[in-house]
Design a protein that fits this description.
single chain, 280 residues, alpha+beta, Multidrug-efflux Transporter Regulator, Chain: A, Domain 2, three-stranded antiparallel beta sheet, 7 strands, MerR-type_HTH_dom, MerR_fam, DNA-bd_dom_put_sf
Length: 280
């Protein structure tokens, strides 16, 4: 990189391409549910306002609550929108999805169905997002912030540009990266290894979820069916409550493996030193 490109002001200018219109701000928490305007909902789901309206017209997305002339959506709508998007990505048509949802909702309470969708599509350790501006990012990481590194961080979802500020969905990951960087690990290397770790975590999550579905759904309904009756809200509640349990298992197991790996590396290094001493 040219020396002029390492100038903080030059880097800051190069990052402006990540900014979005100022009106696209993060939705605020409201009571038990997050609330969104239609623009915010589309942005959060990675969809478009046109799609949201089309899904409503086809009856596969519940209508918003009307407050004056403004439609207010919640995380319930976000969950349904994510599921619609995932089914479309698998090649299903809107008609397929409408038929599937109609069959799914027959004989079941709609609130239970939507509650399960919310639990499934937000199955993660709760993390309160924080915000910073571009200059804060430069202050934290200095010359390690380049357009290439910024692109990688955005693709991984650890930094989300919103207007003239940046949203950090997972502040703990950001702070961990900052501390590693200050210790001498290049930010690009941190992001590269995080992306590799994510693949392993994906496999771990699939095993964990597979265990839950096997024992709570498959054994009772078969491996090609959905839960019914009171099992629907029961499954949603269990998925919500199991988050800290999964977090505890993964955290303790990771700690055990880290301790084992660190000790192995230390002992290997000491053995090498001893071997050199003995050779003298």
């Amino acid at each position: 990189m040219k020396s002029s490109d390492r100038n903080p002001a030059a880097i800051l200018r190069s990052l402006r391409k990540y900014t979005q219109p100022a009106e696209q701000q993060a939705p605020a928490d409201a009571g038990d549910h997050k609330e969104f305007t239609i623009d915010e909902l589309a942005l959060e789901a990675g969809s478009t306002v046109r799609n949201v309206r089309a899904y409503q017209d086809r009856g596969i997305l519940p209508p918003p609550e009307k407050r004056g002339r403004t439609g207010i959506y919640t995380d319930v709508h976000l969950a349904r929108l994510k599921i619609i998007g995932a089914l479309l990505d698998r090649g299903y048509t809107l008609n397929n999805i409408r038929d599937l949802l109609s069959a799914w909702e027959q004989g079941r309470e709609l609130n239970d169905i939507l509650g399960l969708e919310v639990a499934v599509t937000t199955w993660q350790t709760p993390s309160v997002p924080s915000y910073l501006d571009y200059q804060d990012l430069l202050d934290d990481f200095g010359e390690d912030i380049t357009p290439e590194v910024m692109t990688k961080a955005v693709k991984l979802g650890y930094i989300i540009p919103e207007g003239m500020r940046l949203r950090l969905p997972y502040p703990r990951v950001y702070n961990a990266g900052k501390e590693l960087n200050q210790a001498g690990v290049p930010l690009d290397a941190v992001l590269t290894h995080v992306s590799l770790v994510r693949k392993e975590v994906d496999k771990l999550a699939e095993r964990f979820i597979g265990m839950i579905i096997h024992h709570m759904v498959d054994e009772k309904y078969g491996d090609e069916a959905l839960p019914e009756g009171e099992d629907v809200p029961k499954l949603a509640d269990f998925i919500t409550r199991i988050r800290p349990l999964a977090d505890a298992v993964v955290s303790d197991e990771l700690g055990r493996v880290l301790e084992k790996s660190i000790n192995k590396i230390l002992v290997d290094r000491l053995a090498n030193v001893l071997a050199h001493i003995e050779e003298k």
